[in-house]
Description:
- This protein is of the alpha/beta class.
- Helices cover 27% and strands 24% of the residues.
- The protein is built from 13 helices and 16 strands.
- The chain has helices at 39-45, 94-97, 129-132, 142-145, 151-161, 178-187, 202-210, 224-231, 247-256, 277-280, 297-305, 324-332, 334-337, and strands at 2-6, 12-16, 28-36, 56-57, 62-69, 81-84, 123-126, 133-135, 170-174, 194-199, 215-218, 237-242, 257-265, 286-289, 315-320, 341-345.
- Helix 5 crosses helix 6 and helix 8 (224-231) packs parallel to helix 9.
- The chain is globular, with a radius of gyration of 20 Å.
Amino acid sequence: MQALVYHGPGIKALEERPDPILKDATDAIVRITKTTICGTDLHIMKGDVPTVTAGRILGHEGVGIVEQVGGSVSNVAIGDHVLISCISSCGRCSNCKAGMYSHCENGGGWILGNLIDGTQAELVRIPFADHSLYPIPSGTDEEALVMLSDILPTGFECGVLSGAIRPGDSVAIVGGGPIGLATLLTARFYSPAEVIVVDVDDNRLEVAKTFGATWVVNNSDGQAVERVMALTGNRGVDVAIEAIGQAAAFDICQAIVTAGGHIANIGVHGKPVQLNLDKLWSHNITLTTRLVDTVSTRMLMKSVVAGKLQPARLITHRFALTEVMKAYDTFGQAKEERALKVILTNE
């Protein structure tokens, strides 16, 4: 089969690799029909995720058709169209029973495209298939559902829920890329009074307006803090969400959060950031970090099927799997290419 293989920071290649095989009775083999590239994959390519070693097939998102199942798999069958979760869950350990699938104690968690081969390939082995695959309702837009593998649950769980957004809140999302826009889409479930999106890309800021942002702030000149404070009457925001994974973005969140507010970190940080505790200690600030657990996937899928959530709006480019190198170039040059999410098709 063909697959996108990581060979160390800055080095990747489309290669022929052996088809995956079942290793455990709880496994399934899925033929990928559609996958995508995540911002985390770009962090991997920069060397920010040392757990990913040379020779790994990247990718942790996608939809496909079940081709093989292990003897213990009962929730999906050969021929089923399924959504692949970015988080693998045994469903039995104490962490999984507590809904913390990202810290599965039996070898699950974020392993696809990280500790085991991932989805940017023709075929993928999915451990714990009963708890890591979601049958797709007939007639649903499978391309749109690729967004539910990772970015929609991540934005919702790590940004909206961890940030404890409430009706009437003022919210700032620092980062208008796909994960920030996914956060914006799902923040609307809780009716915040205003949502401010901060980025350096005018195209993404224009998209944010169409997604419901109240205000957008271009930080190309480094004046985001002053602008956000001016928009909020110098009060700051109730919830500041870091959706890039950069120290500068985290600094903005610390500077704009109001007393009693929340800072919710979503971004993947490859380097330490400075915590300005000397300024925050007396302000009753709650700071949360989180790896997505995907406990919200079924709810989000219902919202998509009902037409209440439209993640297909995030898709800007489409490529065949054989064009994955070009797709990476496009996604990596998002500002120049006006790219949000790309779809890789293998059909």
